[in-house]
Each structure stands twice: as C-alpha cells, then as structure tokens.
Amino acid sequence: MQATQSLPEAAKDTIRRQFDRAESDAPIILWWDDGNYLKDIIQQACTELNVHLKVAEETPLELRANPVDGKQVWYVPHVKEPEDRDGDYDWFRDVEHTGSEVELSIEDLTVRVFGSEQLQAWELKNATRTDDPAKRREVARILHDKLTGTHLPTLEQLRTQIVTGGYTDPVAFVLENGWGDIDDDSETIDQMKDLLSGEGIDAVASESDPVGIVTATRRWAVAEWLIHAGADADAFPPEFRAETAGPHDLPELKSVLNNTGSQGVIADRYLGESMWPEVVQGVDDPWELSKCIVDAALEHRLWGEWHVSFDSGDYETCLDRATERYKALRGSEGYHGKYRGAYGPDSPWTETWAQAAEVARLAHRLDTWKDRTTDDVVSLYADEDEGTWQIDNAVLKLVVSGEPETKLSGEHPATETLGDLRMELQSKYVDYLEDLGDLVTETVEAGAPFVEEDHAYQFFNKESAGLESGQTVALFVIDALRLDLARHLAEELREYVATLPADAPEFAVEESVWLGTLPSETEFGKAALTPGEVSMFDISLVEGDLQPLRNNRHVTTNRRNSLLESDGWTVTREEDDGWRSTRVAYFKNDLDNIGEKELSDLEEMLSRRVESLAKFIGEKIQQGEWDQAYILTDHGFVLLPHHVTPEKISRPDVSTDSGRRWVAGEDVDEDAPGVLLDSSARLGYLDANVSVLTSPLKRFSKQGMGDARFYHGGLLPQEFVLDFISITQG
Fold it and tell me: Pfam families, from UniProt (predicted)?
C-alpha cells in the first residue's frame, strides 16, 4: 500500500479539518506531540495555511502570553498527561469551546498518511511502537525522513525500514548485513520472516532464529544467481528455486553490489563459503556459470578447471577464461571510476584472476616466441605488435602484481598453485633470455650484424630537421629506459595529451627503434647522444682504456655538457631549473641508480617511476609550449628474477679494460668469453676489439661490483635495442 500524502500534507489536512469543525470564528487548535518530532512539520503546515503558530518551548503555559487574534495553532512538544502528575490534568479546558485539542505523535500522524481506515496502517502503528527511547528516536527519524519528501514509500517499505533501521528492502538488508542490529525477540523475528516471505523468500518459512533466517536468505540469493547464470533450477530444493524473468533482470545479490559500499565484505562472505557444492559439482561445464560471482564451490571448481588447462599447455583457453572471470568479478565501470555489479578491480579475488590472465599470456608468449619466422634479432625483439619485448613487460607486470592470492579468505586453491606458477614462469623467462642470447651470438658470428639499423650515435644527424635552431626543443635523456618501459612511457604520454583542454596545443607522440652503442653502458651511450657529425664519434682503446671520443677527445660528462652548450642547449638535471631556455637538455639517472643500488621492490619502483616521468614530461610539454621534444636513453638492462644470480667469470689475460659484461684489448680474440666485436662487425664507431657477453647468467668479475640482478653492458637486446620517443606539436 502506497502512502497517499506526506506528513506535512497530513498535518495540514488535520488542522484544516479541525478549524472547519470549530464553532468560533477565531479557533485555537492545541496540538500535543509526544516526543517533539513534528515541530518543523507543524510549522510548514501553518505557513501554508497562513495561520499563526505558537510553540511552547518549556511549559504549555507559555502559550497564554502575548495573545493574538484570529485562527492559531498552539504546539506543545510534550505528552498531554505527564507521568509526574497524578490524575487527569486538563491544561486548557477553554480551548474545547473555541477550537479543538489534537493528540497526535509522529507515529499517529503516519497512520493518517496511509489512511486511518486501513487495518494495515494500524498494524504499522504497532510496528512503530517501542518503549526504548533510543529506538523510538531512530523510528521517528525514519518516519520523518521518508515521509517528508516527494518520493513516498509503500507500507511494506516503511515497515522494512523500521525493522532494519533504514533499509527499504529486507532481502538486501539481510544479504549485506546479516541480522545486523535488529532485535532478536520473537516479535521482531516474526516481523522479519513476514517481510522476507513477502518478497518471495519461501526458504525462511521453516526457520525460527536469526541465524537460520540469514543462512536461508543467503543460500536463496546464491541459488538465484546460479540459476540466472544458467544452472538447472530443478537441481535446487523447491523453496530455493528463485524465478528469473529474463537475462536482463538482476539477481538480488547483484543489485546489492550495485548499491553497496561494502563490496570487499560481500566478496569474502560469498566467495569464502560453499553454498551449493552438490549443485556445482553436478554441472558438466562450470565455465557456463562463470558470470555468477558468488559461492566458493563454483569459484574453486573454476580455478581447478583452469589449472588443468594450464598444465596441459592450453594457454590461449586459460587466457580467455581468466579474462572472462576477471571481468565478471571486476564489474562494469560507472561514474567517477566506481564499479557496479561486482567487486571492482582492487579486490584480491579480482586481482587473483587478473594475474591468472597475465600468467597465461606470459606462458603463451614464452611457449611460442621461437615460432616467428625471422632471422632478424632486432625485429624479433622490438616489433611493436609481436616482439618479444612483451615478455619482459609481462614479467615486470607479473612481479608488480604481487601475491594477491594470499589475501583471499577461505581455502582458495590459488593459494596452493599460483605462487608455483609464478616461479615456474620466471625460470622459463631465464631460459628464454639464454636462448635469445644464443640467437644474438649466431647473428653476430654470421657477419656484419645490425648494418641497416638506426644507431644512437647518428641521432643528431638524422633528426637534424627536428633539432634546427629557431625551434623550441626539449630533450629528455633518461638513463636505462628499457624498451618495454619506454613503450609504457609513450602510452602514458598519449593518454596525458589526450586529456589536455580543447584549447591546448595538439601533440603527436611517435616511437622509433634505435640501437645503442656497444658496449651498452652509460659512458658510451650518453657520449653518443651528443651533437656532432657522425664521422667524429668513435669508441677506441686509449692507453688500455676503452673511451668514447669526439674529434679524438675523450667525452666526459663535462665535455658532453660543453658540446651541448656550444650547440645552443641549456643542460639541466633539475625539474624546476633551466626550463626558460628554448633548447633544454634534461638528464636523469634515477632508473639506473634504482637498479644499481638493488633496492627492494625494484620492479614496483621502476613501474612507478615511468608513471611519474610521464606526468613530469607531459606537464613540461604543456607548460613550455615546445615545438618538438625527444625522449632518449643510453641503454636498457637485464633484470633477473629474485632467485637467480649471475655467474662471475674471470677476465681473460689479454684484456686491458672491462665492465660487467664486456672486455676490451688489442689481443682480445674469438676465444674470449662472449661475442667478439671487431672491425668485421662494421658497427661504424667501434675502433677496438671488444668481446661482449650475451648470456644473461654471466658477468665479468670486477672490483667494487656486486652480484646484482640488474645489469647492462652486454649484447642481449634488452640491453642495447632502444625506443626513442618524439613529441611534435601541431
């Protein structure tokens, strides 16, 4: 039964009716309100009726003061017969001869809102009656809030709110809160059973206590979602066979998830407990029910089936199914980044399946990378769509995603299996790196490798059009920006410039593959990224030391800065200093420093740093109104899993200089460890015999250098195949 009017409207009708019955031309309506919950409602009614209102703040006798003429309402926020006075105490007998006395509390007026002749309305009065002052205040608050607006509730909704403390849906209340703070006296239990039964929850009929009522309601809701997802309704007991009108109707639990702020609690509750194990086990293909995101029995069986597929090597099916389950558990994104109908992206249940998808994707890449029919190791690694750089990216993301299964409640089978899969894949990753190193060795020994590629030492010559004087140019030289990190940075920048205001300049973000200098170390890489003719740069042995040279002069940091400044660049390492120039070269070494210092959470720090770089560079591009900007790097790196340590090997006696991953000397030859780069390699800048390691598990012993799992200097594509980013305005 729907409320027919609001409390202010009912109060106005009551006052108007009493005036009409009065014999006096200037009647007084004396309204006694037990509890003082109607004061603002009476005020509104009197304002709309244009009658005078007098309110007794402390004692009814205050109403006698300052008499006025005409119709008026006297409001007393007390009960007519106080408990501290004996007998029938008549405060204002003369009012009976001019107007009328009205004794209506907010509970009484609520009955009139629904129509006093209705028996159900009087049942509502009984439901609102309580001797507990605190509970009465809560009931009065609900009545006031729900019956003073434009959207008036039904009688059942109001009853439900009174019993549950504010909920309009008794089923939703129980599913989210259990019994909550509801009284567990027999009368309240009967009321709650009546409300739930009225909503079609037949399963509570045989229950007699709060625990049983809550359990039956929750099992009914899980059965409803399973049936909605495709389970056979006949597999459930008759009282649990929820009717679903069609695929577009929402199960009750999904409706709760659309409106709750407690998705995490609901996830743990309904995925941490098996509700219908016998039904789930009887389903031929549990993946037909994957959109049902409640019942641990289904969750566990889905994981078991997924793991069987993984063990059999069916990684594409594993990827599809894990992605499907992840999307179901995540829900759909609504306004302000809120997710509806599920648990959101940050739930450990969601994150576990997200990682399962990443595990399957990485396993598939590791299993198939050799199937590519190319003998070009640079293309094999760097191809934007199919390159094996994505394996590095996937391993980094896998480590960053952590151990989400450890946060799951219940005995989720992922707690026993997902960690082992991570370790297995990281071991296979090392095998992949070794195979990739062998392929590089074959490429170099076949003769004249990388001749057709763009080399970093040619950058200033090949990009001269974009670096001409007269243009505003920002140059960001970021140390150790591995190919996968650079591509992540480029994507972040594209997203950044896409959010710029409509009146801001437009920027195009483009990428290109370049090869860093070999050996792939900072000293040589940054020297190459310095203005000057191509013919003027080489790497040579000078008195036993391998040095980068320009015009036969050793390029130190100071020399590099001088060359840049002489070519019109302002060199800075600060985020807020030097940016007023029209040609700025910004150098940052923190990525390399992060790796060299072997800090904890290295993968997470690298990932966060790329995101902060994107924000910093994006802001500089926007604020500086640059015509052109470039993001360059000197080298990449190899990052081994935590459980792997590279082998230290001794330098050959014929070497005169060395790094982590290379040795150089006049007499270094093909018998030295690694791959020999000499004049036959035709690199165009290397004027020395240098043997460079390709194995990811080897490094030369050198004093002062520890066995870090982060290193560079060698001939793996991760170390010397680079991504340069250009950002152009217009």
Answer: PglZ (PF08665)
